[in-house]
Amino acid sequence: MPNIIEITDFQTPELDIYARLSEVQLLHYYEPQNGLFIAESPKVISRALDAGYMPVSILVEQKHVEGEAKDIIARCGEIPIYTADFEILKQLTGFPLTRGMLCAMLRSELPSVEKVCANAHRIAILENVMNPTNIGAIFRSAAALNMDAVLLTPACSDPLYRRAARVSMGTVFQIPWTYFDRKSGEWPRQGISLLKEFGFKTAAMALSDNSVSIDSPKLLAEEKLAIVLGTEGDGLALSTIADCDYTVKIPMSHGVDSLNVAAASAVAFWQLGNH
Q: What is the pLDDT confidence band of residue 275, given thresholds at 50, 70 and 90?
C-alpha cells in the first residue's frame, strides 16, 4: 500500500531534500556513501527506476496521485509519498513542479571508464561543459543518435542534476556514463592514452582550418571513435586538440562561426554515429 502523507508543516525535516538543500548538498547527503538526486516528471522518474535507481521518497501534487503518478507510486513500495495541492507545493518548492512530481533517489556507484567503454564503438567525451541544460541536451542527442556512452571531465556539470536529467528526458539513465578521474587517468593526456589502449581514435570538434571534413570517409570508417566536445564559449583546450587523432570542423554558412555545444553534438553524433 502506498504511504501517502499529506503535507501540513513546511518545516518538516523530511522535506528538506526538496525545498532547502542544494544539489551539491544532496550529492554529499550520505557521505562517505553515495548521495541523493532529485528526478522530476513521471517519464524521467520511470526511466530512473528502469535503470535500477532506488527511490527514497516522492513529492507529488494531490491530483496526480490517482492520475499521472499512479503507476510510478505503484512501483515504489512503501516509501513516503508527500502530497498537497498545487498552491501549497508551489510555496514549498519556490516554483511550479514540472508535471507535478519529484522523486528523491539514491545515487549509484559510478562505473569505471573501462567498463563504460567496453563493447562501445562510438562515445562522446565532454570537456568542462558546465551548463546543466547543455549536458541534458547532449545526453538526449547521444542516446537518440547512436552514441554508446558518454565520458565527462570532472569540471562538467553533473548529469543527475535535476535540470540536466529533465532536459535529457531521462536519457541520462539509459546511456552509460562516468567521469574521468585520478584513478582512471586525468584528462586529457592520460585519458586519451587510455582511450587509445581501448582501441579508440579521438576526434576533437574544434574551429580549426587544420581539420578534416566531418564527412571524411576515413573518419567514418574508424571502428572505434571518441567524439570530443569542449566547454561553452572557449571550446576545447589546445592541449586536448593537439593530443587527438583528428580535428573536425562543422562547415558553416551565412557568416556563422560556431554552434552551441549541444547543437554541435547533435550534428556530430548524427554524422559520425553508428547508423
A: low
Query: Which ranges in the chain belong to alpha helices (H)?
Result: 16-19, 23-27, 42-50, 70-75, 86-93, 113-117, 132-144, 162-167, 189-197, 217-220, 238-243, 261-272
Map grid coordinates 532506488 to a residue: 54
* pLDDT reading at 92 higher than 90: no
* Euclidean distance between the first and the last CA atom of the chain, given in angstroms as a whole number: 45
Q: What is the pLDDT of residue 263?
A: 95
Residue 143 has, within 13 A of its CA and on its CB side, a CA count of 18
> Could you tell me if 227 and 268 are in contact, meaning their C-beta atoms sit under 8 angstroms apart?
yes
For residues 203 and 200, what is the distance between their CA atoms, to the nearest angstrom?
10
Q: Residue 229's CB: how many other CB atoms inside 10 A?
A: 24
Tell me the H-state helices in 147-272.
162-167, 189-197, 217-220, 238-243, 261-272
Structure-derived torsion over alpha carbons of residues 165, 167, 169, 170, reported in degrees to the nearest 10: -10
CA–CA dist 186, 182 (Å, integer): 5
More confident residue, 253 or 79: 79
